[in-house]
Amino acid sequence: MKLSLDKISDHNSKLKLSHQDEWDFLSNKLSKEGVDVDELIQKIKDFQIAVPSWALGAGGTRFGRFGIGGEPRNLEEKLADIGLLKDLTRKTDSVSLHIPWDIPSDYSAIKSLASELGISFDAMNSNTFQDNGGSETYKLGSLGNSKKAVRDQAVAHNIEVVEIGKKLGSKGLTVWLADGSNFPGQSSLRSALQWTQESLTEIYKAMPDDWKMLLEYKPYEPNFYHTIIPDWGTSSLLCKSLGDRAKVLVDLGHHLPNTNIEQIVATLMYQDMLAGFHFNDSKYGDDDLTTGSIKPYQLFLIFCELISGSEDGAQAWESISWMIDASHNTKDPLEDLMQALEMISISFAKALLVDRRKLTTCQIEGDVVGAQECLQEAFQRDVRPLVREARIQNGGAADPIMLYRSLAVRKNLISERGAESRSTGL
Ligand code: PSV
Ligand code: MN
Ligand code: MN
User: Which atom number of ligand 1 is nearest to the Cα of residue 251?
Assistant: First the structure.
């Protein structure tokens, strides 16, 4: 289903009056405070986030899955859904593919569809957490398996993913490993780490010079005693042994409860080791809930670190990749992704409004209250008119979810693709 641009402008003219009032009020206020509003808007417009191919259908849990209907049945339909998200939000212009789920059957057709929709191919994801028809099983691990034949198969798969990505114009390989063990004694902790390092080295060497490797970490699940890459430190250690183009990917759900993720971000940026993000939110673990739905203050603080790290020259903003990694059982996935894109933009906008000079003075002078007030001043601000204005200027809808609902997009997708449609994925 393709959205006609008339629909967006009709919708925007209906909301114009109320938006204009709110926007005039906020922009006047910001200008009086000395904020360069045009520059601010430009930053928000430029900030684009990749959508994962696996988040376009309803996810499930080990207890079951409830389809939403009209889900994309193939890569072409996944791209079409992202095109829709792009038209409505102007917040995404790329897709992160997962192999083997998304192997194109016709590369030139996929590439021309993507360029027609204005979508590029962000980092590619390999999959060695499932058996995908190879002769060896990943039941007891992949890149860190004790059997050389299994490791070789997993390395070959990752290299194949790079080859597929090269044909599509991608520039990155994201590696998430389920490898670990369920019981003490099951695995040699040190050997497993060494085998993983050796396997990653082979993959890294096979990557083109202009590619980067994004290495995820996660403390537990599916293994519950030990995970070979459980934390940012281990990921960073491995990346450093590989080379400059391997960096740590922070998935917000991959931390134990109460971990100070903004500090991890600061530490990684301090060393120019931050590859990028998988945005989602978490109450307990790898919940993959909608970004900003549980801990919006944490998301804001993360953006504060990202902005200060890039402005201070610790790590270039452009070197960081932005992706969503979410999965939903009860929501329409497209609505969920629109909520996530909005929350990411809101948190980013609020963090841009922090008076960093004042904050630094408070920090130096030991003004604890002043420093906290500085952050609260920005965090408590309603920046929705600002984010909306940036979206309208970019050609998007004033209220993407409202328009999506009024056009009955899901109903149309169900009649086009069927109520039982489903793609491969998580
Ligand atoms: C599994 O934890 C996971 O959610 C990782 O975060 C990956 O990025 C994602 O699946 C896709 O492989
Ligand atoms: Mn992830
Ligand atoms: Mn995860």
Answer: 6
Q: Provide the strand spans (E) within 56-149.
A: 60-61, 64-65, 94-96, 120-121, 124-125
Q: What are the pLDDT digits (tens) for 281-292?
A: 999 999 999 999
Ligand of minimum distance to the alpha carbon of 177 = 1
Ligand nearest to the CA of 54: 1
421 in Cβ contact with 71 (< 8 Å): yes
Q: Say how far apart CA 106 and CA 129 lie, in whole Å.
A: 26
Q: Which residues line ligand 1 (CB under 6 A)?
A: 125, 176, 216, 218, 251, 278, 286, 325
The one-letter amino acid code at 294 reads I
**CA dist 112 → 106, 108, 117 (Å):** 10, 6, 9
What does 134-149 look like in DSSP terms, one character per residue?
Answer: -SS--TT-STT-SSHH
CA of 7 to the centre of ligand 2 (A): 34
Instruction: Give dist(CA 143, CA 192) in Å, integer.
Output: 9
pLDDT tens-place string over residues 240-288: 999 999 999 999 999 999 999 999 999 999 999 999 999 999 999 999 9
Residues 300, 71 contacting (CB under 8 angstroms): no
Q: Cα separation of 51 and 321, whole Å? A: 12
> What ipTM did this prediction achieve?
0.99
Task: Find the 343 Cα to ligand 3 centroid distance in Å.
Answer: 19
The minimum-distance atom of ligand 1 relative to the CA of 249 is: 8
- Centre of ligand 1 to C-alpha 416, Å, is 29
On whether the 48-337 domain is CATH 3.40.1280.10, my answer is no
Number of other residues whose CB lies within 10 A of the CB of residue 421: 19
